[in-house]
Amino acid sequence: MKVKRPLSSLLALVLLLTVWVSAALGAEAKSPAPETYVSFGDSLTIGFEPGMTLESVPYGFVDRLYEQALMRGRVQLTNYGIGGMTSTGLNKFIQAVADEKPVKASDLQPSFADPRADQVVSNTKQIKADIAAATLITITIGGNDFGKEIITEVDTMSDEQLAAFTDNWMKTYTENLNATLQNIFAINKNVRVYVADQYSPAPQLYKNYDKLQKLKDLFSATLGQVAQKFQKDGFQATAVSVADSFVGSEGTYTHISQKDIHPNQDGYQVIAEQFAKAIWGEYRKDMKPTEPITVVVGGHTVNTPHLPALLQDSTFVPLREYSEALGAVVSWDDTTRTTTVRYKGNAVALDIGSTTISVNGVPQTITTAAPYSYESAGETKTYVPLRLMAEGLGFDVQYVPQSRTAYINP
């Protein structure tokens, strides 16, 4: 089953948005190629934090990367993360996908902490199609191979026992990751794949901190060797170093104080930053958040003192400022008392107070509030509900409820 995120019931409430292409892009600017992003892995890929339930909406590194991609153009995200996934389980999962063989979660590994596991792996034919269409894949895997118990088990291990453990783990991890990547590239030889290493969650005050750091370093080195092998064969496999960012900040970036090894929001932010730098060369932080919602068009927030407004749980924006600033043409027909917005052959016409708009000559009903006059920054402005217009003018609208941001791309 496809697990698409970020989606929530808030989408229907908050996202009646309209916007037009940014003037910064230029009226004839060529839109970037759409990104198709597929993520695989364990609970880090889900964005899990302690206390979450099936109703929780995570905001992990995948969701943040999704936003980073939306700043650069259209993108579709499909998240196949499963809590408790090991490298062996992922290997079997991707093998079943390559073979289009139906599987259950129990076919992949003995048990999963994630109750969604059977649903996530159920449609291997669709997952294969998603890999074939993907332009970008991220993977987090390996932490569950040795589990959180390693933090306490290392206390009883001699140096020789730890060396034997790591040798066995590296062999298993290497074999599984090699097989996983081989199957992915067999399905899609041109996809860019980014695989994260594994941070150590133990804080510096832990007596065996140095031993766990050595294990972390071996993990990173092993992953790097696997990635280099595929690069030499002409495939786009990249090792993403997130582990070093946690060194010395384990207590700041994880829930270890609650005896949980998962990242907190600061930790997921750091992971997203490292992935983004590997993928795009930078992690963008130049947005200017606005209340009650941020609207990003073509990668830029709209520069106007007339901010979006909420009415009946729907978002409205000032018509003329947004349309003209973003490259559309606005005209007023005094006879019919109708405002029309045009962009590249598409036209949306509306009247203040009317619950119907015209999209390319076809009437459509506004299911929430109608366009209305509103006092903003000392001026009377016409505010309009935006999603119908955005779609009518040919734009893609995606809303991320966790950051209360709408991304509009031509």
Automatic annotation (TrEMBL):
Pfam families: Cu_amine_oxidN1, Lipase_GDSL_2. InterPro entries: Cu_amine_oxidase-like_N, Ester_Hydrolysis_Enzymes, Mao_N_sf, SGNH_hydro, SGNH_hydro_sf. Residues 40-270 form the SGNH hydrolase-type esterase domain. SUPFAM superfamilies: Copper amine oxidase, domain N (SSF55383), SGNH hydrolase (SSF52266). The keyword Signal applies. Keywords: Signal. GO terms for molecular function: phosphatidylcholine lysophospholipase activity. Residues 297-408 form the Copper amine oxidase-like N-terminal domain. The keyword Glycosyltransferase does not apply. Residues 1-23 form the signal peptide. It comes from the Bacteria. This is Copper amine oxidase. It comes from Paenibacillus oceani.
